[in-house]
Amino acid sequence: MSIFLLVTIVCVLGVVGYVLARSRVSGLETDSSVSYHSRPGYHGMHMAIATVLPALLVLAVWAISSQVVIGNVVKSSISQEVLGDSAAREGLTMGIVSSISRGLTLLNAEELKQAANGIDAARPLLAAKGVAIATDASDPMVTAAFRYNGLEQTSTFWRSIVVILAALVCGGWAWTQLGARVKARNRVEGVVLGLLILASSIAILTTIGIVLSMIRETGRFFASVPPLEFFFGTVWDPRFAAAGATESAGQFGLLPLLAGTLYIALVAMLVAVPIGLFAAVYMAEYAGPKLRSVAKPLLEVLAGIPTIVYGFFAVVTVGPFLRDLSAQISGIFTGDASSFIQAQSVLTAGAVMGIMLIPFVSSLSDDIITAVPRAMRDGSLGLGATRSETIKRVILPAALPGIVGALLLTASRAIGETMIVVLAAGVAARLTINPFEPMTTVTVKIVSQLTGDLEFNSPQTLVAFALGITLFVLTLGLNIYALYVVRKYREQYE
Amino acid sequence: MTDATISATPIDAASPRRRDIGLKKRYAAERRFRFYGQAAIFLGILFLAILLWTVVSKGVGAFQQTMITVPVEFAQSVIDPKDKRAEDPNVLLMANYPLLARNALVQALGVDPDDKKAVKAVGGLVSDSSRVELRNYVMENPDVIGKTIPVTMTANGLVDSTLKGHIDLKVPEERRQVSDQEVAWINQLVDDGIMQKQFNTGIFVNGASSRAETAGMGVAIIGSFYMMAIVLVLALPIGVAASIYLEEFAPKNRWTDVIEVNINNLAAVPSIVFGLLGLAVFINFMGLPRSASLVGGLVLTLMTLPTIIIATRAALKAVPPSIRSAALGIGASKMQMVFHHVLPLAAPGILTGTIIGLAQALGETAPLLLIGMVAFVVDYPATPMDPATALPVQIFMWANEAERAFVERTSGAIIILLLFLAAMNIAAIILRRKFERRW
Amino acid sequence: MNMMSDAATEKAVNAPADEPVIKMRGKDVCVFYGPKQALFDVNLNIRENAVTALIGPSGCGKSTFLRSLNRMNDTIDTCRVTGDITLDGEDIYDPAIDVVELRARVGMVFQKPNPFPKSIYENVVYGPRIHGLVRNKADMDEVVEKSLVRAGLFNEVKDRLHEPGTGLSGGQQQRLCIARAIAVSPEVILMDEPCSALDPIATATVEELIHELRENYTIVIVTHSMQQAARVSQRTAMFHLGVLVEEGDTDKIFTNPDDPRTQDYITGRFG
């Protein structure tokens, strides 16, 4: 019985329990003069929860533990020489066994009988179903795979029985609880509260998941590449991930990527900050309600456009435009019409990213500027200051901490931005200060190391997690500090 | 001057009343400052206009496709010379269909059938996909063999570009991709009504293709649809439940503080990090298949959760405390108060936030690249476990194609994506307008 | 400059030595907030070197009138002012009049102390600096000292001039705001309930200060407190529902008002 079918059955049982309990209690209530603590609906729900929840818990525990148990049983049945001596070899062997066993489930009874003869018989049969088996598969592995499938079948059978039994037993217990004094509502609400708490801790679990998974993979990466070489290396040349090659052949220097990331983010901030800040100031201090109601949403549209669209815009419009422009400029000054800005460059990626960031800067700063109390403005205007003097000398200094926070948040977004740089910054990892040349970023390399077919155990792919954790720590630091600054700023004027 | 400033009393009639307070210069500075502000807003809107104009002007053409409708002779001598199609199904599968198309065009254009070079060039006017188009037609109607029937086929991408004016015909012939002869043929076919532009349904329904003229977003639209459904089904209840707990039940202590800070930070974590999480946890650890919409949906759910939680909490906060006291005052339990009174009142706000979160998720690309959504998928995914792509990922893949015709396709795909996003955002705005309540 | 000398001569001609000099004159002043009219045909003269108190129940338009005297109402988008208000004979709503210059001459102190989030020193020197009245450090030091001395704050803060002004007590903050206003050496100082946010002791200090400032400045003060009006002002104007009910010498208004509404108000029947 598949998990899906099992869950459906349990849920149907739950619904049946709900209907039965509800109708019974409402019947009892009208027959007797006793007043019930909880309404019939709550008794119904109590019954339903008692039926479904324990059963699903049993199912979840079974599903997780059975795989581990079966895996271990099968593994212990394989002789040591087949299994291999190192942990890596063991993993490889078990991988082959599990792919054979998965393939066997696709075969019919006749083919299964043939496949049981050994690997040479099994391989073509599996290949016909589209399951490719590694070359170093051997007969004991086929036996193990059969054993694996057998255990799996037994487990599935017992799983169905135990789960349905759990549903029936717990539902039966709930049936005995249908009484006037039973606080069914409180119990139901307790369960609901538990679910609410569970939901709110998913955010925490996500963070923990991010941190743990990255630390684990990064640890594996550092096992083959020393951390010092990674963090202080100036050459990025990972080579190709050759399957099975264990020793690292490439160089994994973080610095060129970090330099590119920060450089592009800097260019983006140079574009976005003045435009965004002036737009916010104008919107908050000068613009009438009409202009505000038009310009603000229009600028926010910029924030709603997916970054992939910006990337495309950079590739087909901005890049070629800058290249042709530079060719014309050099044509005028030197007579040689060769372009000095390349189509993929720090400038292209930075400029387009800057456009993307304008609405972030402007709407964050707008909020912060309007939070400055009106009394400050009046005080300054009342002394005979012009509007711009009031803004420059009173409002902006008062809003400065908040604005700094907003800019840090923007910077963190610039550092973590992926699609624009993937398309517009180039892939060449190098250290240069010329903004007209391509540079690459941390995010670009995460993408390029992890797309395509990959061998998950090589440093070439694992390095992506080391890059990821670098990025995560960098942006997390900026975010926490920025959110802290903004929060402090708001409290000041509340 | 300063001395006078401080001690000047209005009675002192001898000193002049008016002081020079540098008004001219200060007003010049004021005007400059104002101008910077206006320029900034203008620039922002200008960038938006250029961006949209670029996409639309490059992309509208993608919604039209050049088709060739020509009488094709389904000659048995070409399809099944040995008359064995009854026994061997491979005969119809492997027949030389491009030859049929070529012959039909040669006849329509009146080209000398012995001029091998010209005949070959004529064959290039139809897309390679005509093989599939004709094959499907014959397989469905086997009785057409031996007859001559008008059939509509897709034209080659270059022909399409030429007809749409994307290829500069003033460039010397040897430096462009279409020859003068081909241009003449195209003109002739257009004049004869054989070649015409039609509304391009292919871009909506076709799967992946290495040929621009037959590449479509069908798989991507279905993949994105699956993912949005998963995000909606998971993120909305979880997000609302989490917000209710944090806003209505949670004691204000260190633990809830941690959750709060954590949610705000998650909202600002780079999206690509969620991709790494998905790869490590869902694919490597749980063993879910790569390229599946399910994994994409799970990753996007985690990404969207903070947005929905933040919006929902704002909506819950906006419900006035008097409603809560009223409900509790007539003996409702706290849970009943929340689910019967507070939540329904906050629903429009929650829905708006959810739609905006979904729109964000729909446009997100980076995490999907890492979980293998960059895939060449021809067939529609039947379930969320099957390989699929997503709208923005499809755009990314097309943006990486070198061919000229793909630029048009990419822009067209972007238009489709932007239309979806616009529809969602407009829905959110309408909802907000319609149900907005001022307390 | 031409206009100014005209105004000066006019004043000299119109004002014999024993007659009080009229510094500001409001004629048929009406103020509208959007469609709502807040002031109706107010005619009020402000005498030079005197304290004029504007009293009346809340919402009667006294603050509105005060704010229209240095055009602070301009900062509210929907606000519209009709009628004439003159300063030394010049219409301050004339398009040729510069609002910045006007406010440099007619300073304002607000209800709630609103020091800028800067140091005490920077707060005081702000006005002179934007108006270019100080050229160097010595000038600035002098302005700061004189203004703070005049505001009666100098001795309390002289050791911490470079600490933030927001760190002072409420009464000190308000006196800082007054010092900030007089640092520009305005001719008229408008005070909008300057003591309403202060405790009684701080209020007494500020009232004393107002009393001293009268010698050099023309002061208009809006107040809720009848006692305060009686203590600090020479002239009093009573507003009710946007209308100027009565104006005259403070002694007279408080002892023998002409209008029954004034009588009711000062005896505490409404307000």
From TrEMBL, chain A:
Gene Ontology MF annotations: phosphate transmembrane transporter activity
Membrane topology listed for this record: Multi-pass membrane protein
A Pfam family assignment: BPD_transp_1
CDD domains: TM_PBP2
Transmembrane segments: 45-65, 156-175, 195-215, 262-283, 303-322, 343-361, 394-411, 462-486
Keyword list, A-Z: Cell inner membrane, Cell membrane, Membrane, Phosphate transport, Transmembrane, Transmembrane helix, Transport
UniProt KW Transmembrane keyword: yes
Principal subcellular localization: membrane
Sequence ranges assigned to domain ABC transmembrane type-1 in this UniProt record: 258-482
UniProt superkingdom: Bacteria
GO terms under cellular component: plasma membrane
InterPro entries: MetI-like, MetI-like_sf, Phosphate_PstC, PstC_N
GO biological process terms, semicolon-separated: phosphate ion transport
Localization per Swiss-Prot or TrEMBL: Cell inner membrane; Cell membrane
Function: Part of the binding-protein-dependent transport system for phosphate; probably responsible for the translocation of the substrate across the membrane.
Protein family (similarity comment): Belongs to the binding-protein-dependent transport system permease family. CysTW subfamily.
Full protein name: Phosphate transport system permease protein
Automatic annotation (TrEMBL), chain B:
CC per GO annotation: plasma membrane
Subcellular location: Cell inner membrane; Cell membrane
Major place of residence: membrane
Pfam families recorded: BPD_transp_1 (PF00528), DUF3333 (PF11812)
InterPro entries named in the record: DUF3333 (IPR024573), MetI-like (IPR000515), MetI-like_sf (IPR035906), Phosphate_PstA (IPR005672)
Keywords: Cell membrane, Membrane, Transmembrane, Transmembrane helix, Transport
Residues that span the membrane, as ranges: 35-56, 225-246, 266-288, 294-316, 337-359, 412-431
Stretches assigned to the ABC transmembrane type-1 domain: 221-427
Membrane topology (UniProt): Multi-pass membrane protein
GO biological process: phosphate ion transmembrane transport
GO molecular function, one term: phosphate transmembrane transporter activity
NCBIfam families noted in UniProt: 3a0107s02c
Sequence similarity: Belongs to the binding-protein-dependent transport system permease family. CysTW subfamily.
Protein name, per record: Phosphate transport system permease protein PstA
Organism annotation: Pseudohoeflea suaedae
Highest classification ranks of the organism: Bacteria, Pseudomonadati, Pseudomonadota, Alphaproteobacteria, Hyphomicrobiales
Gene designation per UniProt: pstA
From TrEMBL, chain C:
One GO term describing the cellular component: membrane
Stated family: Belongs to the ABC transporter superfamily.
Pfam families according to UniProt: ABC_tran (PF00005)
SMART domains linked: AAA (SM00382)
Keyword field contains Transport: yes
Keywords: ATP-binding, Nucleotide-binding, Phosphate transport, Transport
Protein name (database record): Phosphate ABC transporter ATP-binding protein
Annotated InterPro entries: AAA+_ATPase, ABC_transporter-like_ATP-bd, ABC_transporter-like_CS, P-loop_NTPase, PstB-like
GO molecular function, one term: ATP binding
Entry annotated with the keyword ATP-binding: yes
NCBIfam families: 3a0107s01c2
Record domain ABC transporter: where: 24-266
Gene Ontology biological process terms in this record: phosphate ion transmembrane transport
